[in-house]
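[AMINO ACID CHAIN]
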Amino acid sequence: METRANHVLIGLFTIIVAVLAVLFALWASNYTTDRNWDMYDVYFKESVTGLGVGGIVQYNGINVGEVRKLTLDPKDPRRVIARIRLQADTPVKIDTKAKLAFIGLTGVAQIQLTGGLPESPLLLPTESQPIPRIPTTPSALQNLAAAADDIVERVRAILSEENVARISGTLAHLEQLSGSLADEKEGTAALIKQLDPTATPSSTA
């Protein structure tokens, strides 16, 4: 009976040691993985259609990370927060900028990181911002949309009721001036004909 109890204790001890070993391996793996990646937040003031979780993050055209999470800013739902993780050796500086870019004509979007002077300090976590925030610049699509809006506003200003009335009045004046010039031309031609000595005198009745 005592032998069986000893075997049970030994088996239980072995199982506990094995479980602890697995848990330690998982913890060590996660710890190492976390140390190999750094988290950043990117705040977009435009639609991020085409960008999804797992999307590519590039720095000067080189893949350096991926999108981990996309959420609306609870303080301003017009903004989108993209949580990204980058390789720990990625030199993200305080003047590094992020923007949305599209891959060809597929409609799939990715985040492009650019800039960062060699002498600029690294963008590091702080007490107020434990996850550093990378500033953004407008994407090409947003610039195009802004230019289109500007053109529409200019056209609307040109075609305002006041300007349309002015243009109509100008056209009316031009039409009157054209008629007056035509009348003067006919009168001038008749006067020249009367003064022309070679002109055949008109017969009297």
User: Anything to note?
Assistant: The chain has three helices and seven strands. The radius of gyration is 39 Å.
